[in-house]
Automatic annotation (TrEMBL):
It holds the Pfam family TK. The lineage of its organism: unclassified sequences, metagenomes, organismal metagenomes. It catalyses: thymidine + ATP = dTMP + ADP + H(+). PROSITE patterns: TK_CELLULAR_TYPE. This is thymidine kinase. GO terms for molecular function: ATP binding; metal ion binding; thymidine kinase activity. GO terms for biological process: DNA biosynthetic process; thymidine metabolic process. Its EC number is 2.7.1.21. Signal peptide: none annotated. Belongs to the thymidine kinase family.
Length: 200
């Protein structure tokens, strides 16, 4: 941690199963060990591993505040500062692609309130189209980290894309479809793939 009087923004992006949430969990544990006040935030409909937790796929969990909009936690852009936001030196945001107000809120948190913000999310949907507004924050960030998984098809190359593995439009929300009323994630539905396996 450098100068806490200036804001900081770190963006971690990549396909599913690339370790994005694990990085947030590690950052949380570092901050707790050092006694740094921290505010972890997860998208309200991500209850795959329980309520009010951020969890990795292997169920390493940390407590968090759940919200559909970041302004529900603290409407900082309108000057409404909650105690939880005021106290936090570090803010962690999981599933960043789902927050519709992430760009305005994060810029305000970093540049006006000098928070250190770490966000993780998908950079693209299963069609390789931009997913949410995470990428719009790259010009404002201090660092951007592109993480990779292992290709679940060839099992050799780094996976950089997420591809839909089944064709069932009726029963699931597809990654990148704009209904945010549910989150459906599973290795039987989506696969992290390398470029060759994605395009074959």
């Amino acid at each position: 941690m450098n100068d806490l009087s200036s804001g900081f923004l770190s963006i971690m992006i990549g396909p599913m199963w690339s370790g994005k949430t694990s990085k947030l969990v590690d950052k949380y544990k570092q901050c707790k060990l050092c006694g740094i006040p921290i505010l972890p935030i997860n998208y309200s409909l991500d209850t795959r591993y329980g309520d009010e937790v951020i969890s990795t796929h292997d169920e390493r969990k940390i407590p968090c505040i759940m919200a559909k909009y970041l302004s529900d936690i603290s409407n900082i852009c309108d000057g409404e500062i909650t105690q939880a936001f005021k106290d936090a030196h570090v803010i962690l945001i999981n599933e960043a692609q789902f927050f519709e107000d992430i760009k305005v809120w994060v810029i305000c948190a970093v540049e006006e309130h000098h928070k250190r913000v770490y966000i993780c999310g998908l950079d693209g949907d299963h069609r390789r189209s931009k997913f949410g507004d995470v990428l719009d924050l790259i010009p404002f960030c201090d660092e951007v980290i592109k993480l990779h998984s292992i290709c679940m098809a060839c099992k050799k190359c780094p996976a950089i894309f997420t591809k839909r593995a089944v064709d069932n439009e009726k029963n699931m929300l597809l990654v990148g479809d704009i209904s945010q009323e549910q989150i459906v994630i599973g290795t039987d539905i989506y696969k992290p793939l390398c470029r060759k396996c994605y395009t074959d």
